[in-house]
Amino acid sequence: MTKTAGNALIACHDCDLLFRARPLRNSERAACPRCGAVLYHKRPQTISRALIYSLTALIFFGLANFFPFMTFKMQGREQVTFLVSGGLELFQQGFRGLGILVLAVGVLLPFLRIIGTLYVLIPLEFNLVVWKAKETFKFVEAITPWAMMEVLMLGVIVAYVKLIDITTIVLGTSLYSFAALILFMTLSSAALEPIEVWARLEQRS
Ligand SMILES: [Zn+2]
After folding, report:
1. Helix 46-66 crosses helix 109-125 at what angle (to 10 degrees)?
2. Pairing of strands 70-74, 38-41
């Protein structure tokens, strides 16, 4: 049995029995020895698929930050906003903590999550383990619940609905890229099996 990292102790979601996860072969399933619930199964090429989704997410992250997010037109004036504008505006208005929080969960943490995932998965795809790969993957797993771009998106939709009557709003390339970014980050998470990543990191170090 391959020794796996610290977080590989998992609990059955049905009966809470604790046991140590082990890597599976393709199409194999792990079932709870007590109640028989299927705990996880191995789908083929999880790492390759997660890798492709993460690379696509990185491209949309670049587009989302490069192009205008929304343009407001009111009485002949035009104001262009970018993805980071909301957080920066809050910061400048004196809501420093809130501004930093919005930028962290909406921009910085998603970026670190994509970069960290690629840093671990690209070499792993070629059966290599790079420097500090385990620490990086542990970090990625730790920040994942905090990379909440959906919250930022929800704020944008609320603002849009409130302002649409009093001003003309042009949705920018960034907004569509941001929506695509959320989609591909979700696909990447769905494809990735952390248990498999941990098993492969342990095998090759
Ligand atoms: Zn069980």
Report:
1. 140
2. unpaired
Q: What is the pLDDT of residues 135-175, one digit of tens each?
A: 999 999 999 988 888 888 888 888 888 888 888 999 999 99
Tell me which residue range forms the domain holding 2.
1-44
Domain match, 141 and 171 both: yes
Distance from the alpha carbon of residue 7 to the mean position of ligand 1, in angstroms = 18
Residues with Cβ < 8 Å from 11, sequence gap 6 or more?
A: 17, 18
Distance (angstroms) between ligand 1 centre and the Cα of 64 equals 43
By CB atoms closer than 10 A (0-12, 13-18, 19+), residue 42 is middle
CB of 175 closer than 8 Å to CB of 160: no
- The two tokens of residue 96 are 């420093």
Domain count, the chain: 2
Q: What is the value of pTM for the model shown?
A: 0.78
